[in-house]
Amino acid sequence: MYSFEPTEEQQMLMEAVGKYAVNDLRAVARDAEEGGVLPAKLVTKGWEIGLLQASIPEIYGGFGERNAVTGVLAVEEMAFGDLAGTLAVLTPSLFATPILLAGSEEQKQTYLPNVIGGEWRPYTAALIEYVFDFDPNALKTAAYESGELFILNGEKAFVPFARDAEAILVYANLAGKTQGFIVPRDAHGLTVSEEREKLMSLNALPMYRVKLDSVKIPASNRLGGASGHDFEPILASMRVASAAAAVGVANAAFEYSMNYAREREAFGVKIAQKQAIAFMLAEMRTEIEASRLLTWEAAWKLDQGKDDACIEAYLAATGAADMAMMVTDRAVQILGGHGYIREHPVEMWMRNGRGFAMFTGLMIV
Amino acid sequence: MPIEFEAPKPVQQTQFVLKTVAEEMMRSHSRYFDEHEHEIPWDYIEFMHTAMKALGPGSLAPKQKGNGHGDNGSEQKEKRPSIAYQVLASQIEMLAWGDVGMYLVTPGGGLGAAAVQAAGTPEQKAKFLARFNEDKPTLAAMCMTEAGAGSDTASIRTRAVLDENTKEWVLNGEKIFVTSGDKAFTEYEKLGKGFIVVWASIDPLAGRAGMRAFVVEAGTPGVRVAKLERKMGIRVSDTAAISLVDARVPYDNILGSPTVEKTTSGFKGAMATFDATRPLVAASGLGVARAALEFLKEKLAENGVAIRYGLPRQKLTSVERDVIDMEIMLKSAWLMVIKAVWMADNQTSNALEASMSKVKAGDVCTRITQKVVEILGPLGYSREFLAEKWFRDAKITDIYEGTGQINRLVVARQILGYSGKELR
Predict the structure, then answer these.
(1) B362 neighbourhood in chain A, CB within 8 Å
(2) What is the dihedral of CA B28, B32, B37, B43, to 10 degrees?
(3) Taking CB atoms and an 8 Å limit, are B338 and A2 in contact across chains?
(4) What pLDDT, on the 0 to 100 scale, is given for residue B263?
(5) Nearest CA of chain B to the CA of A272: how many Å?
(6) Across A121-125, B76-80, B305-309, least confident range
(7) How confident is the model at residue B287 (pLDDT cuts 50, 70, 90)?
(8) What is the rounded CA–CA span in Å between residue B281 and residue B296?
(9) Collapsing DSSP states into helix, strand and coil, what is residue A128?
(10) What is the pLDDT averaged over residues A263-268?
(11) Contact residues on chain A for B311, CB-CB shorter than 8 A
């Protein structure tokens, strides 16, 4: 049966996340972006909502089951508040969720209780590389097997909280396949850049380059253990998360510009009463709905283990990235000159909007 | 019920059955009827009528409570939400995948019956709707548009005046763009007696409040099919111009109140019909789009072009990007249709979702069919294949049942909370 109605539990969660997103994240988003600092308290508060904790079974210290649909519903709500804050709150998922999805039993028991067992701590992951032609399925960072060890070489980029990380899940190319490796922060040969990444947006999120120079890790640190794992479902879970965040940011820009258009007068009427503006808003709302539904379906297919789930996640993320660019661009356009001024948030959302084409790897559900 | 995307069993079953119909009865005759405009696809009409009769009344129309079909709809178990609109949208999509023009010729009440359903009294429903389940296939049509009034329906000029002596309505005016108007009005031997629903004003000074719909039976004197339009596409579906000169219609054939009240609720009520039908029109457009996209993918595969899903965009070829973009559009547009009809089935107000689905589908099916012809090049442009026909057929989706622009207005008014006056 088709149904488009979140469960009561999901609705309660969405409400809690939505409140946090608007009252907490949105309230400090601009200052955080300008100052480059997210208040630690804010991240703690987001962590305490328990999105990750609720996706991990009791035997590993959590209190629920992972559900991608719940994940995308929550991520959209949170990103509606602020993207950088959302990514910060969810950074430990980058480490824990792949272990939950693909880790060996030993890895689950070793890491999951630690990650979720207390306060928010910077466990993170490194997928993106600072190269032309970046492709998560053709990484330049290489791993090779040497006896009981894996040896990693390469450089990762955009790694959130890498400087303070307890451990990093590093993705590397092992004989043509992308595989995850759990690398302790103090591993010999691993260096984290002093300077933070300087990007077009997400200034509030501390991200770093991570160099791997013949980093040796025990074979048991390969994600999934000796036989490794399939990267596709992990990538797909990253993609639906990115799609959901794109929908959240787009919806923020849409609502803000719509409210502005309702107030702003020109030629004796509200500009929203002009078809040139009203039609833009109608199309923005329509495209947001289109991306949202495709994202939901992709997440649902992941939960159901459908054959085409990974392709659908790719389609959802690709579509949402285009949609977010279109919608956030129009939001700035509707505010006109004011949209370009940093007193309004729309220019920040537009800078966020462009990023969804390359944010895969920064979030996961 | 939690969020779910599994098509209900009846949807899956009907799609399975209709795929064969679409292939055997429709697709294989698409080209013939495209090139023989105004010939009538009797085989299809008779087959569908027989099939629908066998499947039970209203099998290709949502079951309505007390619809005069004698199926006691009101006594249906209320426990499970209806899925009638979901089934219908899926059927329409599949038939349009076969041939959207031919789908429009599917016997049944169409928009004419929908108007009776929306605005008629129980007696009128009983009187006018029973005929669609009788021995001969029967069609009905809706006459709204005039040469000087398209999207601006409130400015129609057709007049209805009550003859106090005979208690008949006397209709005068010229209607155009009546889908299936010929089959609904002209008395063909192979068809049952149909009707057209004519919109006219009973008080031109009252504007919308004075607008009423009248059921005009096939063959009514003074009414004639003045012209059959020659069209860019959907050629197998007749589009009639109908002239009414002193056409006399029984008093009881007026849908809604015979007196003019101050409110426009009657008109709005009838216009609400479109909330239900817009996602269905969207579904028909998406059937065409799917046909075109599937054809393109077949041709690409035949020629050794694989679509490398999962690659970052900058690594894709132009054709791969186009195909992936088209799949995104098509899938998300279909989900919007399904959501809109799911809401209708659950009796939730879906004016916003219905119009959004139509906006999206209108865009998607025109863009996909245009792109498919482009990518196929000479093969696409040639009449050897159907791609060029789907390109022509698809365009109407963004025009009828509210143009893309009218639906954008509806969406904008909904999201802004504006009246028609506030956002013209």
Answers:
(1) none
(2) -50
(3) yes
(4) 64
(5) 8
(6) B76-80
(7) very high
(8) 23
(9) coil
(10) 96
(11) 135, 137
Cα–Cα distance measured from residue A238 to residue A310, given in angstroms and rounded to the nearest whole number: 10
Q: Do B3 and A319 touch (CB under 8 A)?
A: no
Q: Which residue has the higher pLDDT, A19 or B64?
A: A19
CA distance A298 to chain B (A): 10
What is the pLDDT, as a whole number, of residue B246?
98
pLDDT at B270: 61
Residue B75: pLDDT band by 50, 70, 90 thresholds? very low
Is B423 in Cβ contact with A275 (below 8 Å)? Answer: yes
| Contact across the interface for B356 and A278, Cβ inside 8 Å | no
Query: What six digits make up the tokens of A91?
Result: 């950074």
Question: What's the whole-number average pLDDT of chain A?
Answer: 97
| CB spacing of B353 vs A289 below 8 angstroms | yes
Given a cut of 90, whether residue A250 has pLDDT beyond it is yes
- E strands within A115-237? 124-126, 142-146, 149-160, 167-174, 177-184, 190-192, 207-218
Decide: A138 and A265 in contact? Cβ < 8 Å.
Answer: no
Residue B6 designated active-site: no
CA separation, residue B302 to residues A295, B296, B298, B381 (Å): 31, 10, 6, 18
- Distance between CA A355 and CA A321 in Å, rounded? 8
- pTM attached to this predicted model: 0.94
Average pLDDT over residues A116-140: 96
Q: Is the pLDDT of residue B22 over 60?
A: yes
Within 8 A of B309 by CB-CB distance, chain A residues are 311, 314-315
Looking at chain B, which residue has its C-alpha nearest residue A258?
B416
Q: In angstroms, rounded to a whole number, what is the distance separating the alpha carbons of residues B312 and B306?
A: 15
The ipTM estimated for the assembled molecules is: 0.95
Which chain A positions have a beta carbon within 8 Å of B337's beta carbon? none
Mean pLDDT computed over B285-304: 98
Count other C-beta atoms under 10 Å from residue B222's C-beta: 15
Q: Is the pLDDT of residue B150 over 90?
A: no
B contact test, residue of A73, A76, A308, A318 with most B CBs within 10 A: A318
pLDDT digits 0-9 by tens, A311-320: 999 999 999 9
How far away is chain B from the Cα of A143, in angstroms, using its nearest Cα?
21
Asked if pLDDT for residue A102 goes beyond 80, the answer is: yes
Binary contact (A300, B335; C-beta < 8 A): no
- The C-alpha atoms of residue A245 and residue A356 are separated, in whole angstroms, by 8
Q: Which of B146, B320, B353, B401 is catalytic?
A: B401
Q: How far apart are CA B4 and CA A303, in angstroms?
A: 10
What band does A364 get if pLDDT is binned at 50, 70 and 90?
A: very high
- Residues of B in Cβ contact (< 8 Å) with A282: 356, 359, 408-409, 411-412, 415
Share of chain A above pLDDT 70, in %: 100
The pair of three-digit structure tokens given for residue B171, joined into one six-digit string: 């209709």
Cβ atoms of residues B217 and B82 within 8 Å? no
Cβ pair B21, B32 in contact under 8 A: no
Q: What is the mean pLDDT of chain B?
A: 91
| Partner-chain contact B415 A133, CB within 8 Å | no
Helix spans in B105-231 (H): 110-119, 122-129, 181-185
Contacts of B408 in chain A (CB under 8 A): 278-279, 282-283
Interface test with B, best of A315, A330, A354 (most B CBs within 10 A): A315
Q: What is the dihedral of CA A15, A20, A22, A26, to 10 degrees?
A: -150
Contact assessment for residue B296 and residue B376, using Cβ atoms and an 8 Å cutoff: yes
* B359·A69 Cβ contact <8 A: no
CA-CA distance, A321 to A360, in Å (whole number)?
A: 10
**Confidence bin at B236 (pLDDT 50/70/90):** very high
